[in-house]
Structures are given as structure tokens and as C-alpha cells.
């Protein structure tokens, strides 16, 4: 089969991890007889430098014409002056919004090979397998007013946490449907003891649950959820939550997997279903990691696993998705580690070696 993919490497370690993911994708293409046409485009800081815009029109247009988008990371100290009029992150937010990608799926699965490498006790990590469904185009990130201003009494700033019923309903449905395809347990995370937007969220969740009698719904306050994620992470099957809560909770959850460098994500404009294909943008949950950029240290596994999600959701290639995940596990089993997941007795390797080993492990 033939697929068109827009590739947006971005800034910092973005180009390094993207290159390794493409290596794996091309190996899949060769082994399984698929043609992946790649269209490289600018986004983020590099796009600001070259065009003045964090999301150039050409980039957006190309993404709209493709079957899927692969994104590395955006941002870096060069563009992070608080007075800057345009920021790399604006490009990322704009592309999510323009493509209507309101649902961000972030699976947190712990490779049994890595339960000893992180900071948490292995027995806490046993059986951890969850998906966080993060709302991605609303809430504090987008709603207006959003500004800073000055008065004689000093400077002021405002961001707005607003949600409409239709936005809450569609993201909750992604949560319910995702849970339906798994262990049928949905935890809706909010701050309904304080926030009006959360009270509406919880109300709609309760109403919708009547349509999903097979899914067990519970509600958790976001602060309690943050605690539970460390205390008893195996409790969770599917979490569904507001944009910023989801951003914060998934960085926390990535520590369960040992490193941010392990977690992939898919952003979609609907409900991914077996047997059908959905347009999506795929990116690691980590950022541009300017501290290690160019040093050949970044872990490409999150981006490689994002390719696995692309094969699954956007191309309907289940076998190919499984082969990528298996190749990642095999390399970890053999004891190869990037420095972020290194532990005693294992072999530390760089970004390119990790990509090449995983690509070399692709079998059909
Ligand atoms: C993420 C990132 C972005 C976000 C930043 C870079 C704007 O942290 O994808 O989680 O906050 O959504
Ligand atoms: Mn984040």
C-alpha cells in the first residue's frame, strides 16, 4: 500500500529522533512492501528562523494533504525570551487546532525490562497499562481572553479555562470508546470541587455513562489523581481529562515508564476504531531537550513507538505495528539502553545505534 506522510522534525532533539523513526518506517516499507512517501516541512523555532512563522502555510497545507503527520519536537532557549512575539510552541498549538486534533492519546505501558531502571519500586509498576486521553484543542491553552496588560496598579495576566458541552462530550466519548476496547474502566479527571468547567465536565460524564453501561466510570480530582498515579498506577485503565491536566499528568506518568523518552502519542480528530483508518499526528510526548540536542544521546524509542501508533490508527497496519513494538522490546531485552534508561549491567548506546538496532530487528 501507498501512504503520504508529512514529516516535521522541528527543533532540538526533534530531528535526531525523527531520523531514527523514519529508519524504522522505511524498513517496514521494504519488508512489507509498502510505499511511504515522505514530505519534510518546517515547524517551530527553525520555521521562525527561516520564514518568520512557527507554522508556515506550506507546512499546514502539506499536512492537510497527507495521510498522517510525524512530528519531532519544538522549542529551545534561542526562542524562549518571554518578550518574543512568536514562539515555537505557537506552531505546535496552531497545527493541533488547524487540523482539529482534539483527542490526544498517550498510552503508558511499562516494558517489563525497564521496571528496575526508574526511580519507582518494581512492585508498584507491575501491571501498569493505561491510556491517557487528553483534550487537546480547548481549555486554558486556547480560550480567550488570553493576554497580559498593564494598569497603574501593576501588570496583570489572564488565561481562560472554558469548555462547551460539545467539546466535553466529544472527548468523553473518545474516553468511553477507548475504555470499551480495553478493560472497560474510565476515570474522568477534573477539579469539580472548585472549577465550574469541571462541574459541567463531571455532569456530562455522568449523563453519557448511560450510553456506555458496559464501561465502569469513576471520577477523580486531579490532585488526587496525581497522587494515585504514583501510589497505585496499575489502578488506571483509561483516564480522560482536560488539556492542561492531561499535559501535567502525562509527564508524571512518563516516569512510570522510566523516562519521557519512552512515551509515544497520537493526536486525532475522532475515535480510532479497529478496521478503519483515521488521520492523525504522531509525536513523542517529550520536548526538544535542548540540554542534550546534537549530542547523540536522545532516546528515539518514543518516536519509534509513535510510528507504531501511526501504522495502527492511520494506516490500519496491525501486523506492522506489532512488529515495531516487538523489535523495541527485543532490543531492550538484549540489554541495549540510551542513557535516560540506563541501569547497571546494561549497554549504553546513542540515538543512531538504538534506531539502527531496532530497524535491524524488524522481521516479517
Ligand atoms: C506536550 C508539550 C506541549 C504542550 C508544549 C510544547 C506546548 O508539553 O505536547 O505535552 O504543552 O502541549
Ligand atoms: Mn507536555
Description:
There is one protein chain. By secondary structure, the chain is an alpha/beta fold. It folds into 2 domains: 1-101 and 288-364, 3-Layer(aba) Sandwich (Isopropylmalate Dehydrogenase), CATH 3.40.718; 119-257, Isopropylmalate Dehydrogenase (3-Layer(aba) Sandwich). It is 39% helix and 21% strand. It has 12 helices and 14 strands. The chain has a 10-stranded mixed sheet, with helices on both faces. A two-stranded antiparallel sheet has the order 6-7. It has a two-stranded parallel ribbon with strand order 13-14. A hairpin with a 2-residue loop joins strand 6 and strand 7. Helix 1 (14-32) packs across helix 10, helix 1 runs parallel beside helix 12 and helix 10 (301-313) runs antiparallel to helix 11. It is globular, with a radius of gyration of 20 Å. The structure holds 3-isopropylmalic acid and manganese (II) ion. 3-isopropylmalic acid is lined by residues 75, 89, 92, 247, 285, 287.
Fill in the keyword field for this structure.
Isopropylmalate Dehydrogenase, two-stranded antiparallel sheet, 12 helices, binds manganese (II) ion, binds 3-isopropylmalic acid, 2 domains, 10-stranded mixed beta sheet, globular, 364 residues, single chain, alpha/beta
